[in-house]
Design a protein that fits this description.
This protein has 516 residues and is α/β, with parallel strands linked by helices. The protein contains 21 helices and 17 strands. The protein is elongated.
């Protein structure tokens, strides 16, 4: 333009980079209550903290008419900024540019900031809203996407990664988001598919719609992909910030200590009423956890998936802790395939980021049945045992009631290297329940007695007296103490304080071979 200056040209390019997408698509997004990629980044981060990179990048494809439209940024906003004063790396896919698909430069931009995060040891938060691979660019885009996936894998366990899915995400984008430590799915528009839904027979035949196949409810309750569901974009960003508050910047750092007004020595006075004396009566383990942790604040993850085990973050004496607990109100707290995998991955995440693990045990065993056996409960149950045994962070365990058999061993027992194990007086540590044990041990005697319930009841009482209380395990050193339920919080805090300096030497090896 005649008379224009370099500064004018720069200003014009910045304006173009600020709104590069199809304006009709942007209008449709706004009508659906969604924001643009740039607006999402602005709402996620502290005001004025975003530093953008590669705003002027364009794609380099000339096939299929791509040369007609070469928007600045190539469909993704990327850079770094702050959340509650903490530095983070972030990116946001722009659905208004080629449906947020990954082309060569799009994937390279995300890979570049992910590599920056790994070098700078900063958490990554990705906002996903794209339809996977950009078919128009062919194998060129495939190569760049492969590089992106490789870098995301390299970041795993080194820096925390959180994915926020706020649109329809399929193919490679879904795969990349699934590599994250935590996935948050928007309830209204968030959908995830490994393949395009239009190639799924149930969709084609009208048996399911897209929401029924890959919506938030399905991925939160059936697939176990989403750890949390958000009813709005603002809520999704708040959830990501809350998860991040329990995590360190990287694997060599410690989480922040945030003490409130909750005394470490506070008694858990309502605990006795929460847990029935009868070991067959259900109760909500979350209520027990909330009694123990700081300010009764427990951030539960995967609340609708594998509900027979509870996992989440909390604070104890100001320190971040990961909490795992059996849930007696669902399947009597038995461990099944999904629960074992859910808890195992969470324990490993805590171990990556130096977060102590508190385990509340009330488990009658592994769930029996052909579905579980043929589905691989042996292999999947071993993942949980493996995760606890492998973890080098402080591990503290409270047995509230039942702790039977292999499930007792898998739930952070003393023999797997747990640092502090206690039980309430109601605790029962045994190979199996008294009724089952008596039926096996005394089957000949019971057969002679016929259907005498008196004989059976007496044998059950004898077995419980001999093996069914926590003092037997305490005498063997498998429990460090037997405590009153009201003292659970103070006992755990007292044990955690010296364990914060725990260091465990691990013999050098490439890596273990977890039974995947």
């Amino acid at each position: 333009m005649a008379g224009s200056t370099p500064g004018d040209e720069l200003d014009a390019m910045r304006i173009d980079a600020g709104s590069p997408g199809d304006h009709r698509v942007v209008q449709n997004l706004r009508e659906d209550g969604a924001q643009t990629a740039r607006e999402r980044v602005g709402e996620l981060l502290d005001e004025g903290s975003f530093v953008e990179v590669d705003a002027f990048v364009r794609h380099r494809s000339w096939d299929h008419g791509m040369h007609v439209h070469t928007p600045l940024g190539d469909g993704v906003v990327a850079g770094h900024g702050m959340i509650d004063g903490r530095r983070v790396v972030c990116f946001s896919q722009d659905y208004s540019v080629f449906s947020g698909t990954m082309g060569e430069m799009h994937a390279n931009k995300i890979a570049k900031v992910a590599e920056f995060a790994e070098k700078s040891q900063l958490p990554i938060i990705g906002i996903w809203d794209g339809d996977g691979q950009r078919a128009h660019e062919g194998v060129t885009s495939l190569g760049s996407t492969g590089r992106l996936l490789d870098i995301l894998v390299a970041c795993s366990g080194r820096v925390p990664t959180i994915s926020i899915v706020l649109g329809t995400v399929s193919g490679t984008s879904a795969l990349a988001a699934g590599l994250s430590d935590f996935v948050i799915l928007g309830n209204e528009r968030g959908r995830m598919f490994m393949r395009s839904p239009y190639t799924i027979p149930e969709i084609i035949e009208g048996e399911l719609d897209e929401e029924g196949l890959g919506g938030a409810v399905q991925h939160a309750s059936r697939s176990g992909v989403a750890c949390m569901v958000a009813d709005s974009e603002r809520e999704a960003f708040d959830q990501a910030a809350e998860i991040l508050s329990y995590l360190p910047d990287h694997t060599l750092a410690e989480p922040a200590v945030l003490r409130g007004g909750d005394k470490w020595s506070r008694k858990c006075r309502g605990m006795g009423k929460l847990v029935p004396q009868d070991s067959d009566q259900p109760y909500d383990m979350r209520a027990v956890i909330e009694q123990v942790v700081d300010d009764r604040r427990f951030l539960e993850l995967f609340p609708t998936y594998a509900e027979n085990v509870v996992i989440g973050f909390a604070r104890l004496d100001g320190h971040s802790v990961g909490v795992v607990g059996n849930q007696p109100s669902v399947l009597a707290g038995c461990l099944d395939i999904d629960a074992s995998v859910k808890a195992a991955r969470f324990v490993r995440a805590c171990d990556c980021y130096n977060i102590p693990v508190i385990t509340f045990v009330d488990v009658p065993g592994f769930l029996p049945g052909t579905v579980q056996e043929w589905g691989g409960i042996i292999r999947h149950g071993a993942k949980l045992l493996y995760a606890y045994a492998e973890a080098t962070v402080p591990k503290l365990t409270v047995v509230t009631r039942k702790a039977y058999g292999g499930a007792y061993l898998a739930m952070s027992c003393k023999h797997l290297g747990s640092d502090y194990n206690v039980a309430w007086p109601t605790g029962e540590l045994a190979v199996m329940g008294a009724e089952g044990a008596v039926s096996i041990i005394h089957r000949a005697e019971l057969a002679e007695a016929g259907d005498s319930s008196a004989v059976h009841g007496e044998l059950v009482r004898e077995y419980r007296q001999k093996f069914g209380d926590p003092y037997v395990a305490a005498r063997h050193g498998w429990l460090d103490d037997v405590i009153e339920p009201a003292d659970t919080r103070s006992a755990l805090v007292s044990a955690l304080r010296p364990l914060l300096s725990k260091r465990e030497w691990v013999p050098p090896k490439k890596h273990g071979n977890i039974p995947l």
